[in-house]
Amino acid sequence: MTQWLLDRTYRSTSGEVRWTTLGEDGAPPLVLLHGTPFSSYVWRGVARALSERFQVYVWDLPGYGASEKAAGQDVSLPRQAEVFTELLTHWGRTDREPIVVAHDFGGYVALRAHLVHGARYRRLALVGPTTLPGWGSPTYRLLGEHPDVFAQLPPALHRALVTEYISSASSPGMHPAVLEQLVEPWCTEQGQPAFYRQIEQNGLDATADLTQEEYRKVSVPTLVAWGAQDAWNPATLAHDLAAMIPGARLRLVDGAGHLVQEDAPAELTALLTAFTA
């Protein structure tokens, strides 16, 4: 449950990125993107299952998980989309279009890379993506209004806040060991300021530059999957987004909150397997 190692490094324009690949070299490529305040760890079960058919690429966004966290680092969503475009080239995934599966902020990153930077995908699955106005939990909104204040919390209080915040992404609740793995990267000397940095740089208007007209330009078969009990990004946004993207399929996962990968991994893997067949 806790073993997850990103054993490769890429020096991006926004710092060192840790990544790895699962499955056979040369198999059809599939890339998994995480969101905030998570890491690629949330994809571990789905990644291992899909690696039976695909060469699966997983990575931690700059400023998250095992990747570099540094003062003054640009971890804005537009920069993350640039880094993702860089990585596709680094991986050689420009000549053979990958399937991309993206969660939360990762959904915006994948869409921006496609619409702004011309990244080409074979298929695109968006899982509870942070895209349309109305996203964001009350806690995220409060932290975004006072990042300098919360950044001064003593380490123990900071850990308690992050623990409670991340746990609210699950509807049925997370296993304590899983929760600890997601909390720990934010509780180091570099991690605590990085937690508030990424919130400060990505306010509630961070995704507003991609409009309904832009989403209508998505030219790849798309699946929109959403936890029916998502308390962070309401499921009503799923219907709105699916209606904007031409030909998009919509699937709601009952019993799952925002972290569909943790709440309903078997159901989500089945959806992705069918979609990618």
From TrEMBL:
GO terms for molecular function: catalytic activity. Signal peptide: none annotated. Residues 28-265 form the AB hydrolase-1 domain. This is Oxidoreductase. It holds the Pfam family Abhydrolase_1. It comes from the Bacteria.
